[in-house]
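Batch queue: ligand-bound targets. Current item pairs a single chain with pyridoxal-5'-phosphate. No template structures supplied; prediction is de novo from sequence plus SMILES. Inputs echoed for audit trail.
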Amino acid sequence: MSTEMLQIPVAKPLLDEQEVEAVRRVILSGWVTQGPEVSAFEREFAAFVGADHACAVSNCTTALHLALKAVGIGAGDEVITVSHSFIATANAIRYCGAVPVFIDIEAGGFNMNPDLILSAVTPRTKAILCVHQLGMPCDLSAIVAIAQDLGIPVIEDAACATGSEILWDDEWQMIGKPHGDIACFSFHPRKVMTTGDGGMLTTANSEYDRKFRLWRQHGMDVTDAVRHGANRVIFEGYPEIGFNYRMTDLQAAVGRVQLSRMPSMIAERRTLASQYSELLCDMGWLETPREPVFARSNWQSYCVKLGGGIDQMHTMQELLDKGISTRRGIMNIHLEPCYSDPTIRRVSGSLTLSEAAQTRSIILPLFAQMQAGHVDFIAKSLGYLKEEVNRLQEMAI
Ligand SMILES: *Cc1c(COP(=O)(O)O)cnc(C)c1O
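Prediction returned. Tokens below.
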């Protein structure tokens, strides 16, 4: 009998010789930072999501910073968002000197509740930053309608949502077309496709796109590609203070391969997610994630909510003892020490559902190379855990 225990990670990027070959090609070309591979990746990504413009940057946090800056967010402004997100969502608002205003999530999921937006509005409200949490599209049509009434822009934190779809004008469209004013994506290894680190901004607004390109490269008004290809001497200028938020050509080459894998990777994730939902739906003590009628998730994460009386830490430890890695649900930014100062953020209403989601949910393993047998084993392990809990409860009576 094998003594080696099955080890199932919570996530795992799908990378192989194709990505190695792509990086090799770039290294041997002699052009390694932002150049022809970045341009090609941008064209291919724009085509994939159906956007007019796509601009690659170093990660999604810098993408969010540039997006907020492009719509004019500055010191003292307020941006309505959720606390129930990765900390970068709020940090990008702080980089602009603005104040994140946190509203609660919806009862049935992990996304912003649009009904709470109006009560959070003040004369200082300048934008809405919504999140497609865990790859599940939020209720964008409701959010965009409210923003249009208010006359403020919508920025989508689509860090997890590459390849997710939304029902828009009666047809399924990719997140990032975009449906708000700007959408921001992440290519961190924990997301569905990866470039090591990396980010992308998509927009239909050519002026925003021009600003992204200026600011990501130190505010320099001539790109390296233009200077390199010119047959006359060109001196660059710096009309504005910018940043170094460039993506490298090494990363972009990996991104192009990853993008070509997206249709099959997403199909596999959808199969695994529906297998989970089938096996777990009868366990009354556990709530499985559901797609609203307007949403098709890329299943960046499969996050279940535990019923009352089921301890999160205990469940995670029991699964880990069986070789199954899990993560607790998404964090809440307002509970972190760096956001304890009430002058740098505002909480609008109660965040009860956000707080419950953090302590009551766990993320189960899901990655493209995972097998049906793994899902089966995890579901059985969860079933066995519940039997144990029942037994303990009966003994206590
Ligand atoms: C991962 C993530 C980010 C940050 O992305 P990076 O590419 O790591 O900067 C921002 N927002 C959300 C919701 C995320 O999940």
